[in-house]
Every structure is written in structure tokens, then in C-alpha cells.
Amino acid sequence: MSNPFTNEGNWYKGNLHTHTTNSDGELTPQQAVDLYASADYHFLSLTDHRVLTATDDLDPKGMMLIPGSELDGGRGELGQSVHVVGLGMESATELPETDSIPELVASVAAQCRLCFVAHPYWSSLLTHDLLDVEGHIGLEVYNHTCFRGIGRGESAVQWDGLLGRGHKLLGFAVDDAHCHYDDALGGWIWVKAPDPSVDSLLGAIQAGHFYASTGPQIHLIERDGEQVHIQCSPCRDVCLIDPRPGSGTTTHRLELQQESYTDVTLSVSEDCPVFRVECVDPEGRKAWSNPIYPAP
Ligand SMILES: [Zn+2]
Ligand SMILES: [Zn+2]
Q1: Is pTM, for the whole model, over 0.85?
Q2: Which CATH class is domain 10-213?
Q3: Is 117 a residue whose pLDDT tops 90?
Q4: What's the rounded Cα separation, in Å, for the pair 285 and 283?
Q5: Once rounded to an integer, what is the mean pLDDT over residues 72-92?
Q6: What is the CATH number of domain 218-288?
Q7: Gap between the Cα atoms of 147 and 149, Å rounded
Q8: Which of 114, 191, 218, 247 is in Cβ range 3.0-4.6 Å of 210 for a Cys bridge?
Q9: Local confidence band at 1 (pLDDT 50, 70, 90 cut-offs)
């Protein structure tokens, strides 16, 4: 997994999880496209439940439209099914009749270019529900409609539980907007891609060349031995999260306390196998980097 902050390319902002009137959303596909285009998004995926929403007849309003769908099935220990966002498929996805989460996700993965697990916290998924699951590339660390709806938007605990067990998984922020209440435009990713095309975006996403956000921007994360250099838009807290028990550090521990940080160096232990960064701005909005591994 290379580092998007030091790779060549341009940054593109987009949302990979949205619903329309083709499933249980309030907006037509064109109204959804218009909404995100007017908010200066560069790409969008209309991921209706169990159907592939056609985009050929839509005016993309300058955005890249990624084919996508939200699939569901399987059963976690607490009884909830798992939801999976699949992207880059050419036709509607066939779902197996199964209670097995690994079987469901493997089937979705085989029919899409890539897929990730939606809203683990909303689904009451426990870390161990996802231990034997393969084929997906990550999970939603933040889902805005789950936050606005029932206060269960953030799934960092499930993510760190898997990272700490050696699973190399990426973290997505999405809004999953249905627009029955104010749930649009509250979570997105910034992707660093070599050129503005769907193919290039999906390749960059698969390679982990993105970060998730509800507001702040991350400009640089660079590790030099036991030091990690981070640059971001003004943030009140910058946290280095090491998924091992009791590990990690934050700007609150620095000797020189500042009101906000845009350029900060945090320490990491030499033997840290993986860490990630969270930046929190003065309004409490967050950005999440993907996991960063030591250079081979
Ligand atoms: Zn869902
Ligand atoms: Zn959804």
C-alpha cells in the first residue's frame, strides 16, 4: 500500500454510497447527480439496494459516475445482515441465499471491481463477524445517514480490531444519503488519481490512495523512523492511532500546546506494524487516513 500523499496525481472528491428513487431514496437519479455536482463533487456512485441504477441517460454535470449497488445478506452474531457496497460492476449482482457473511461478501466481490462493508456499527456487526471475511477492501469508518438517523455513524472500533489482527483494510466515509432528512453531503473521500476517469479512480481507491473526511483536509503524512510528519487544514486535535493496546499518541501530549495545528510531528514506536491518523477540526469534524505500514 503506497502513500497517496507522496504519489503523483490530482485529488478528486466524491461519495461512493447514495440512494435514489430506484430504491428507498427521495431524489431521482438526476436530482441526486445535480445535488452533488452543485456541491463541487468530482465523482458519485448511485448505489441503490440490490439494483444497478443506469447512468447512461443522465447528465453527469461534469462528474464521473461510478456504477454501483448496495447488496445485503448473511447474518452477524447479533442477527443483523451485512450490507456491502459494490462498485464497477457491469450488470445487476446475483445474491446467494446464505446466512454466511464470508459467502455473501465473496459472491459480491466476484461480481464487482471492488467492494467494501457498509456501516458496521449501524448493522451491529462485531469485529469477529468480519474476521473470516475476504474479498472486500475495507469498511465505512463513517456513514453520515447512520449518524444523523440513530447516532451510530462511526465504526473505528471494528476497523482497528481488524487492523490489529493484521487485516489490511481501507476506511471510507460516505453519506449514504436517502434525503428523507438532512443526510446528504456529510461524508466523502478524497482520492489521489493519475487522471480523471472512472477506471483511474477505481484503481486509486483499490490501491488505498485516498482518505476519508467529514470536513478537514489532510495534505501530508510521512513517516521518518520514529517520527510521523502530518500536515492538514487547521485542526484542534491530530491523533496517531496504533491499534495495539494502549499505543498511539495525540497532539494533546505535545509539550507546546497550540489552539490548532496545520503542521505537526508525532512519534511512533519503531516496531509499530501499522498506524493511521485522525484529524479533528474546531467544529468537531474529522478526517481519517488509511492505514500506513512501514516501508518494506
Ligand atoms: Zn445499508
Ligand atoms: Zn445505503
Answers
A1: yes
A2: alpha beta
A3: yes
A4: 6
A5: 95
A6: 2.60.40
A7: 5
A8: 191
A9: low
